[in-house]
Amino acid sequence: MHILSDIYYVFKREWWAIFRDHGVLTFFILLMLAYPVAYTFIYSNEVAREIPVTVVDHSKSALSREFLRSLDATSGARIISYCSDMEEARLLMNKKEVYAIVMIPDDFSKSVNRGEQAHVSLYYDMGALLNYKTLLMAATDVALTMGKDVQAASLDYSTGAESIAASPVRISDVKLFNPQGGFTSFLMPAVLILIIQQSLLLGVGILAGTERDRRRNSLMIPRNTHYRNPFAIVLGKAFAYLPVYMVMGYWVLFIVPRIFGMTQIGHKGDILLFIFPFLLACAMFAIALSFLCKERETPFLIFVFASIPLMFVSGISWPGTAIPWYWLWLGKIFPSTHGIEGFVKINNTGASLSVVQPEYIALWLLAVIYFFISCLLYWREIRRNH
């Protein structure tokens, strides 16, 4: 019973420390409320549409005009001007008035009529990869469609099989779990998980840095009989963070995706059961790393810039098969890696908890490992304090 009273004492003290510190509240509450909405709103259009382009048409033929009309009719491109030469077109691109230049050579129509391969040059502003992808797909679709029409018109027979001869195989493009091929549905579920972990690291780090600032010997615990059991200290702190993040986690993972119409086909019960060990692992991970925070400002220097590398090693923004094995193994020590993999499988693909069992077990193991690491660190702190 003595350890239970110590856990309750640490919990109560940590709980009041959270709500008395405006900096901690900023990361625990305000950041969790605002960041998911801001990030999702920025990418809420899902895909790039009606990208402005300019045209340099040296052919000025019926075929070149047909190609350009078809390109302008696609959802990806919008022709806003015609230029006499490439220099004029480059000026528009340098001013960011257009993001691509379509250049049709003077022999375009002649090459098509002679049965030769014609060329159309596209020059992209590679500062925006989504624009590049959208424009390339639009131009490719128009070129393939025009090629089929030209091939069908050149056939000598008219038995109704021209379209089959020109295009014997029809491909159906089906995007599973992300029908619109949108950026938000693809990336935001991983970002939401990473926000939870990073906000915990920052908030707990600020609490630890504040405790060190208050004491002469930079100790993280007071000279108090309730702080003589490392297990009680770690559990008391974790129990103070979990209720806050259970509420904020529900907002981030359930309400925000619903507001923006993101994909949510997983069973809510499976997601909740999966998220609990993720939050517990993040809490233990944050407590262990809080020993790196010698001052209140230290978390900003250590944890903020880790977000982008953690996103890469998770295997979401970059294929895991293209990542070196040592980076993949490094990523396994972070709860966010397993949290992203499991949450995306359940939420976006409808997988059950049994399907994400490897990630589920990994999160429990990380919670246990970081719990004992935190206990060892606090045991050393207790010896310094007494």
Could you please describe the fold and organization of this structure?
The chain has about 375 residues and is mainly α. Helix content is about 65%, strand content about 5%. It has helices at about 1-20, 20-40, 60-75, 85-95, 110-115, 130-155, 160-165, 185-215, 230-260, 270-290, 300, 305-315, 325-330, 335-350, 355-385; strands at about 50-55, 75-80, 100-105, 120-125. The chain has a 4-stranded mixed β-sheet, sandwiched between helices. The longest helix is centred in the middle third of the chain and has 32 residues, at about 185-215.
Please give the structural blueprint:
Layout: H1 2-20, H2 22-42, E1 51-57, H3 62-73, E2 77-82, H4 86-94, E3 100-104, H5 108-113, E4 121-124, H6 129-153, H7 162-166, H8 183-214, H9 230-259, H10 268-289, H11 298-302, H12 307-313, H13 325-331, H14 335-349, H15 357-385
Parallel strand pairs: 1-2, 1-3
Antiparallel strand pairs: 3-4
Helix pairs in contact: 1-9, 2-8, 2-9, 8-9, 8-10, 8-14, 9-10, 9-15, 10-14, 10-15, 14-15
